[in-house]
Design brief:
This protein is an all-alpha fold. The chain is built from five helices and no strands.
């Protein structure tokens, strides 16, 4: 009766789902049973490279740090689009060349805008 309600193409997906679910549950239960249960204060203290932490872990970073990190990721990801374009340049022709020049123009306008606004300064 179950096969009448469930198409046969979805049965492997359902079986895989239950296997993955069982693997996760068994792994968590095994970790709970195997781990040591004797905890003490020294074991629960924070640990950083073999020394006690000197400052609070929740210290604030300047906003400029996040701006530079986001700009780096943004420009890095946009430059990754050049690789598939360069590989298939012979097949895509002149239209793709014009589109890539436009893309790089927008990219450089954004770069110079961030530079002029001082987003790339570490001061």
């Amino acid at each position: 009766m179950l096969t009448a309600l469930l198409p046969s193409n979805y049965l492997p997906i359902l079986v895989f789902f239950f296997i993955a679910l069982a693997f996760g549950v068994v792994t968590i239960i095994a970790g709970y049973l195997v781990r040591p249960k004797n905890t003490y204060d020294q074991k629960l203290t924070p640990y950083e490279s073999g020394i006690l932490p000197e400052t609070d872990a929740r210290q604030q970073f300047p906003l400029r740090y996040y701006l530079i990190a986001m700009l780096f990721v943004l420009f890095d990801i946009e430059m990754v689009f050049l690789y598939p374009w360069a590989v298939s340049f012979n097949q895509i022709g002149l239209f793709a060349l014009v589109e890539m020049i436009l893309f790089l123009g927008i990219l450089f306008v954004g770069y110079f805008y961030a530079w002029k606004k001082g987003a790339l300064e570490w001061d």
